[in-house]
Amino acid sequence: MTLVEPTVDLALGREHGLTDEEYADILRILGRTPSFSELGIFSVMWAEHCSYKSSKKYLKTLPTSGDRVLHGPGENSGVVSIGDGLAAVFKIESHNHPSFIEPVQGAATGVGGILRDVFTMGARPIASLNSLRFGPLDDPLHQHLLRGVVEGIGGYGNSVGVATVGGEVSFHDCYRGNILVNAFSVGVVEEERIFLARAGGVGNPVMYVGSKTGRDGIHGASLLASAEFDDESDAKRPTVQVGDPFTEKCLIEACLEVMRTDAVVGIQDMGAAGLTCSSFEMASNAGTGIELDLDRVPQRESGMTPYELLLSESQERMLLVAREGREDQVREIFARWDLDAVVVGRVNDDGRMRIRWQGQGVVDIPVDPVARSSPELDRPLREPADRLERHKLDVASLPPELEPEKALLELLGSPSLGSRSWVYEQYDQLVQANTLVGPGGDAALVRVKREDGSATLKALALSVDCNPRWCWLDPYTGAQAAVAESARNVACTGARPLALSNCLNFGNPEKPEIMWEFAEATRGMSDAARALGTPVVSGNVSFYNETSGRAVYPTPTIAMVGLLEDHRRYAVAHFQREGAPIVLLGNSREELGGSEWLAQRRGLEAGHPPSVDLEYEARLADLLVTAVAEGCVSTAHDVADGGLAVALSECCMSGEAQIGAKVELADSIRLEALLFGESTGRVLVSGDDLDPLLVLAEAHGIPARRIGETGGRRLVVGSGTGPAWIDVEVAELAKQWKRAIPAVLEEDG
Amino acid sequence: MLSVIQFPGSNDDRDTRFALKSVLSCAAELVWHKQGELPPGTSGVVIPGGFSYGDYLRCGAMARYSPVMAAVRRFADAGGPVLGICNGFQVLCESGLLPGALIRNHHLHFVCQRVHVRVEQALAPFTSRSHAGAVLQLPIKHGEGAYFASPELLGRLEAEGRVLLRYCEADGSVTPSSNPNGSLGNVAGLLSEAGNVMGLMPHPEHAVEADFGGRDGRAILGSLVDAVTGGQS
Predict the structure, then answer these.
(1) What residues of chain A lie within 8 A of the CB of B11, using their CB?
(2) Residue whose C-alpha is closest to residue A348's, from A205, A208, A209
(3) Which of A357, A557, A645, B147 could form a disulfide with A503, with the two C-beta atoms 3.0–4.6 Å apart?
(4) Is A353:A362 a contact under the CB 8 Å cutoff?
């Protein structure tokens, strides 16, 4: 077959999303005009999504190392030691653009991709979380997107047999044109059995395993994920991949099985930019080159060109470098799972990628300049012109909240704060039999088992968090708060926060205001991660979350992983018995800026977000870990969106048995700030005897006050003198809260 | 020894083995679906939950053709106890080892919840550790768990006392609102005519440890363990 390909020139380079400078660089690197396939390779490898060219400069400033960090950013996932020869392997990644275009498959393949990033390192994925952000739920389009995304996540995660144990869902006008779908997964591996993406050992066979290659997802990473949306975006639907969780399940089992032999040198999943990205990265990491024969690639359809074979993002495929002579052993294991395992090339020693198709050379380029010397940009920054305007908030002039109880019921009944059970009941939260605490609490808690199936006493605490409104008001403080909240959530279970993964969702980086937001957010994240001793070990950047010029709020999602050494003692977010004391850790300040109350009840998004004291947060986390381990705290719940009144309601409602509480608050601040303000660093705790906690709290320098007692069927909140501000049946609160999402989707009753 | 059948796409296979072996201390091994025979010494079979063959075509429709299923049928015909959980229940219906079918939940969503089920009879080998009228709290997690049978068949199953578990309220009353998936007659678990094959949608293997979903699942799995080990009955 003769290969007829378009003539490559600058214009075609531009169509591939390359700048004129980048095109000139390609000519310089090759010393000639690239072939069509080569142009495709450069365009995907240098696209924002794969190259991080706009973000590199800032990502370098993040703390990435620590005593427990075995592998940080640069590998498929971060790897953190959890002791006794075991390690946690985790990452969060975006699948925003595909999910907006085609919600079911977009979200499903997001889950599939993140799972491969985990098991490619030799780890069995044990749990997934997600962070989902949609436009307002009264918009039928966003109801459709919510249904589709949840169906996609459930359909894939349930079938592949990894429990979905938590996450966040929020709705805001800024996501009307760009939803965010961030998927997180964590796995467990024996430290001795960690695998890396290395094409080592000259002469070793390069093997293709998993699904066959089709024409789906071509240029998903470059054209879809690395450009803004516009009215034509629907035409990009064919760039969305289609997932097959059954094949992924078989692929997980086959990969873990082959990794238990010593036949594997290195392995990498074919994710963004498919065969191209995986082969270049594996060769670059090992300082080698690869020769590939495209005719041997298992193909789903006939007549595929080398360009298509190289750029396809067909799912459920891995590239594996085996030890020479062990090919049959690899093939045998994959055959047992009815999967292809085919030798498609060899490792060479000259640092070049040589690709042949039908006897002709179609690619011959040096590996490192493509994989490593991708451009690093220093894009201009500019403060948003309305930055000071955003901060303007005259709290004193706000009309007072005359009906605090009604306000509480409305907040709990809103999609922003209502129960997420409609979402998470569509996910298998239990498979693998490790779920101590599932969705709905502050953090999920999953037991760690060894690969032989034996249980340990360890558990991992997992939380994903971000308050985009705060990040929009002040990206530096907002990003700090996201790290602090995720650490606090993890510590509320009794687990010690270890490390984090981040998913940085922003608008168009070519706009100086967006780059300023990004720079500020990474600075805040960096400071917070340092102060809390939780290095950034993996993550991803998603730019161009922008439609027709309107960007999403800066949304640096933080996924925190913590370690509970002995899961026989842990705390949950709900009250567990009547007659137990309630203590509030931390101080309520007169902070209403950026609060849910202000947005919902006064229609304002303004002010400064609540301040964050990082050293205090580190002490608070330490206090919680100690108090839970010593057995004096069995309930701990972070005070977050909606403030103290909402947090108290959640403690009363979210357990299997609803339990009331009587609480007295004596702070001399505005009532709205007292009930609904979102001051950071506060945790509601309860337990049989909290006296030891008060002693511990003093030693940690954490304010702790007894504010009430559990019991009865009502939540009563007052000052102790005069009529209570809130005096309502817990069942009534729960009714509003539980129907918040089904009512809008018309699925209640 | 209990044989836990492993199809491609089985998900709760390792969990079932963990519950039987590590928690209930009964010998249990995974048996690959391409085996034409059950391992020697098999005294009971569990077909676990998951998505065998991806549940493509129809839940359980492909798994029934796996070589191991012929051996399971011979084992059942000879009176050996066979328990199918969730996807395992679907496989048993598709294989004809249990009557009726499991169809899409009436609300069309996958559902993962803890529900109550009422034990209708205490019978070896599956509910001997319980008693008639006992209410168990067990998790369900399925998209296609609505039990369906013709009125004649359903009438016969009821008359023969073969409905072993029924979705109910916490107090044991059987109501429409306690039915999580639209199953006819609130059927959650069913017995074969000979009484040695049982299918159920709830997951007893995810309720054997106090902190991991409670211990009510032991009423089912413990009964099976007793039956195959000659333990308490």
Answers:
(1) 159-161, 249, 428, 431
(2) A205
(3) A557
(4) no
Peptide bond into A509 cis (omega under 30): no
Q: Do the Cβ atoms of B13 and B50 come closer than 8 Å? A: yes
Helix (H) or strand (E) holding A496: strand A496-505
Q: Is B203 a catalytic residue?
A: yes
Residue B172 burial by Cβ neighbours in a 10 Å radius (0-12, 13-18, 19+): middle
ipTM of the complex: 0.96
Beta-bridge partners for A543? none
Tell me the pairing of strands A360-366 and A435-437: unpaired
What span, in angstroms and rounded, lies between the C-alpha atoms of A644 and A650? Answer: 10
Enter the tokens of residue B22: 């590590």
For residue A705, what pLDDT is reported? Answer: 96
Beta-carbon count within 10 A of A368 CB: 15
Classify A53 in phi/psi space as left (phi over 0), alpha (psi -120 to 50) or beta. alpha
Query: Based on the number of CB atoms within 10 Å of its own CB, is B135 exposed (0-12), middle (13-18) or buried (19 or more)?
Result: middle
To which residue do tokens 């608070």 refer?
Answer: A620
Q: Is position A574 annotated as part of the catalytic site?
A: no
d(CA B79, CA B64): 19
Distance between CA B173 and CA B178 in Å, rounded?
9
Q: What share of chain B is helix, strand, coil (3-state, %, to 5)?
A: 30, 25, 45
CB contact under 8 A, B8 and A338: yes
Confidence of residue A470 (pLDDT cuts 50, 70, 90): very high
pLDDT value, residue B10: 96
Predicted TM-score of the model (pTM): 0.96
Q: Dump pLDDT digits (tens) for A66-116.
A: 999 999 998 999 999 999 999 999 999 999 999 999 999 999 999 999 999
Mean pLDDT along residues A656-662? 95
What pLDDT score does A465 carry?
Answer: 97
CA distance A190 to A446: 17
User: What are the structure tokens assigned to B5, written together?
Assistant: 């059948």
The CA distance from B5 to B42, in Å, is 12
Q: With a cut of 70, say whether residue A225 has pLDDT above it.
A: no
Nearest CA among A293, A292, A290 for reference residue A350: A290
Q: What is the DSSP secondary-structure string of B101-146? A: EEE--TT-S-EEEEEEEEE----TTTTTTS-TT-EEEEEEEESS-E
Residue of A nearest to B177 (CA): A749
- Judge: A431–B18 Cβ closer than 8 Å, yes or no: no
Per-residue pLDDT, A668: 87
What is the reported pLDDT for A367? 93
Inform me whether the pLDDT recorded for A312 exceeds 80.
yes
Identify from A162, A428, A572, A658 which residue to disrupt to test chain B contact, counting B C-beta atoms within 10 A and taking the largest count.
A428
Other beta carbons within 10 angstroms of residue A32's beta carbon come to 10
Rounded to the nearest 5°, which phi and psi values hold at A461?
-100, 135
Task: Work out the percent of chain B whose per-residue pLDDT is above 90.
Answer: 93
DSSP A295: G
Sign of CA dihedral A492, A497, A500, A505: positive
Most distant CA atoms of chain A, gap in Å: 89
Q: How many Å apart are CA A202 and CA A430, to the nearest integer?
A: 44
pLDDT at A233 over 90: no
Among B12, B14, B54, beta carbon nearest to A245:
B54
Q: Are strands A360-366 and A124-134 parallel, antiparallel or unpaired?
A: unpaired
Alpha helices in chain B (DSSP H): 13-17, 67-77, 87-95, 151-159, 218-229
pLDDT at B233 over 90: no
CA atoms within 13 A on the CB side of A646: 28
φ, ψ dihedrals at A709, nearest 5°: -145, 150
Closest CA to B148 of B224, B93, B111: B93
For residues A352 and A364, is the Cβ–Cβ distance under 8 A? yes
Residue written as token pair 């010690």? A496
